[in-house]
Amino acid sequence: MDSDVIAAIATPPGVGAVGIIRISGKDAIKVFGRIFRNLPQNKVKSHQMYYGHIYSGPNVNDIVIDEVMVCCMLSPRSYTTEDIVEIYAHGGMATVHAVLEATINNGARLALPGEFTKRAFFNGRINLTQAEAVMDLISAKTDAARYAGLRQLGGGLSRRISDGREQLLTWIANIELSIDYPEHEEEAMNREAILYQSQAWLDDMNILLKTSNFGRVIREGVKTVILGRPNVGKSTLLNAIIGEDRAIVHEIPGTTRDVLAEQVRVGDVVLHLMDTAGIRDTEDPIESIGVDKSYKVAQEAELILYVMDRSAPPESEDMKILRGLEGKHVLVILNKCDLPAAAGWSDVEFTHEVSAYNRQGLDSLFEDINRKFCQGLLSSDDTDIITRERHSQLLRAAIVCVRRAMDELRLGVEEDLVSISLREAYTALGEILGLEVTDDIVERIFSEFCVGK
Known about the structure:
The chain is an alpha/beta fold. The protein is 44% helix and 17% strand. The protein is built from 14 helices and twelve strands. Helix 7 (191-220) runs antiparallel to helix 12 (389-410) and helix 12 packs antiparallel against helix 13 (415-433). The model is unreliable at 252-258 (pLDDT under 50).
């Protein structure tokens, strides 16, 4: 880790009441003192606010840039464990950038994406899962995503993984004790004891792994397609769900000819919502392309809202299309329930009745979506959730290695081979925490961050 003083804007682009410029490094106080003349260099108190003016430099003729408040956080009681200075300037873009430029002209350099959090990781303040949780908190779009990130930042997931790793280390130590010091074999844990303990370990890690589907949903959202024949109210349903007139609605069939995408939060789930062209046989080449796209996005979707018009008689074409969606997660929606129902719907299986026109029945639809994708995992304050594919892959690899090791124990395989399998699992869990991770993976993770974090 280099010892440069780094600086960056820590607030989003745009105009606001306050803009924050963050400085970190061994000489952060020294660099900052060149542009702020009210700072007592030898008597700076940690976590205390100071009032004054930012200047373009330390010389008498340097100009005033802004009137600010400042907080100094001295090492090791800071986010990076280095000395940190945060400048609270007026939030105009020109002002904030001028303050940043002054810090760079007087000894700092512009921070790289995620470099503040990266320093916190390398300086031992947080582990890699906690660093990733920072990014999850920044990008959280729902309370569920915020909760999962906060729990992970607090070390919940880290403790779970660390406990599992410690158990593996105990087994490895006992196995190697019996190999290296056979005279102490009676003191080492025997095969039966390890096999017995392994079942509880596997149960715990599998429970944690099962949360990865939920974690992916709350972090990335659900690909959702509104599908159906022409004129059943698909575009009206899209508009009702997002709360604005985004899609063109008309009584002429075939109005929608392309896939229209929107993003909307429904409780603890973010839906990546796609309205599609009505499915029908058509001679119109442009509409035909739209129908082909409808089928394509439906095959890639995680959730399909299949819409039918309750005010018109059921069509056999609907049943044919639904049969082609077997194996997909489909909610069958009877739309236009504000109108009299046509004959024949009593024999049709459906999930929800709604009126997209007046939003009737949407609350029930939203609750159903949340139940299906959230699974009640947030009902407890001590629920740890896997939110990243990196974590789930490594955890899955560790489980496979432990299962292999237990099979080897049952078959009486040489203990040094069993130890190799357990060490592979131990390494995989260590990679989750960043204890045994390569530089390129670290760089890739922190490249996702914004510059000021």
